[in-house]
Amino acid sequence: MASVVNTPINSKPKQIIIHLLNWHFVSRDDFATDLSDSSDGKLSEADIERQYFEFLDDVEAIQKEQKQILRYLIKNCEVRSVYLEGLTEKNLKALNSFVKTLREFEVPEGNGAIDLFLKEQYRRDLMQLGVPTQLMITNELKSVIPLENSAAFKSANPNAENGKIQVDEKVEEKREDEMLKILRKGQGINVIVLGGGHDLTDNLERMKLDSVLYIRVTSSHYKKVTAN
Predict the structure, then answer these.
(1) Structural domain count, the chain
(2) Best exposed site among 8, 17, 165, 213 by fewest CB in 10 Å?
(3) What is the maximal distance between C-alpha atoms in the chain?
(4) Which helix (H) or strand (E) covers residue 161, if one does?
(5) Which domain of life is it from (predicted)?
(6) Which residue segment(s) compose the domain that 195 sits in?
(7) What is the tens place of the pLDDT at every residue in 72-119?
């Protein structure tokens, strides 16, 4: 079961933000770099490959749960669009073009080497796009909406120093503030798919948005993965 935590408010909310905690897909190369940085010793290619496939299984399991939650919201709360982390007005056109391509793609049914490669690539493409975009491909969602301000998103990209990822907390806070400015343009129930490391509670308090009910939804598998 998913767990739900919401911010207390003193009056009837004028807006509801439902935050589905996301576990990000990353490429094998980025995964291998991060794994090597956090490891005490040198890892073999076989170890990296095994752990990467376990990671992909976790991403897929979490996305399966997200899909169930979103389908419930589509059916019962008339949700038609979802805000997506990493999406800006600048890259929205490219995303919509890729959605069109994947709608037209016929997944191979064979078990030959090329068919298996194409099926695995398609699987990874879907995971990278995320559940809201997957539901756009199947026409269950009308659209995916940018959650990011382009400038704030670009500024917040982690910097690598001495091979280590460095995150500027002040810049991240600014990025989250910009997310809320975008969300405030919406009405009723607004659903966002955003990494679990983000918590907009303090941003709401600082911006004095006390009429907004903010709900964080943690799926069962997300809870399991982050507990390890």
Answers:
(1) 1
(2) 8
(3) 60
(4) strand 159-161
(5) Bacteria
(6) 3-227
(7) 999 999 999 999 999 999 999 999 999 999 999 999 989 999 999 999
